[in-house]
């Protein structure tokens, strides 16, 4: 009744996809390259000092993640409310959303390019570098301003949220997506001097990462069209009977 028992086997596939979509969003071309400079700005220090381990960016990064999570949770709640309001047209909504997500996926695979998805819409959080409040504002601005780049992944998860049976389940999916995007920020903030090699590898393989992102989105869209999430839930229950005790 109050939404406490919201996780069950039928939600697990969507949660896994939301988590992976968040990770892929972090690795996208307009997010990954700006992570170290953002951490330096939020900490009120220089990138050289961060790389040398002279300053820590973990607390500002935490407030940054709280800021972007605030926006994503509101989006998830709104998408769930919309889905319930137009429940009678949900089959049509699911079909249209599935087709759009597949189109976005083909863009990232490289079948064709959609111009607005290659542009960034950045918002300025003001001269608040070096403060936790400024980091929180920057997180809010990030969530609003980078949607042209992370929009396809975010749209897919919002569509899944709109198709959920309750506001709590839909909002939870966006919380998982925010975790997938935010946890890497925290890890980089905590271990930046040690992660230079990994960050460099990801930048060098950005094209391959984009293709993985595209294949994921295309697969999500196909599952929306064909009822694949229900089939995956049934497979999970048959393969792992203990999941029936969840929720």
TrEMBL record:
Where is it localised?
Membrane
TM helices/strands, residue ranges: 12-36, 57-80, 92-112, 133-160, 172-192, 212-237
- Keywords for the protein's UniProt record, in alphabetical order: Cytochrome c-type biogenesis, Membrane, Transmembrane, Transmembrane helix
In terms of superkingdom, the source organism counts as Bacteria
- Membrane topology for this entry? Multi-pass membrane protein
Q: Which GO terms describe its biological process?
A: cytochrome complex assembly
Q: Where is the Cytochrome C biogenesis protein transmembrane domain?
A: 15-225
User: Single GO cellular component annotation?
Assistant: membrane
Main localization (coarse) = membrane
Q: Which InterPro entries did the record assign?
A: Cyt_c_assmbl_TM_dom, Cytochrome_c-biogenesis_DsbD
Q: Name one Pfam family in it.
A: DsbD_TM
Q: Name the protein family.
A: Belongs to the DsbD family.
The protein, known as = Cytochrome c biogenesis protein CcdA
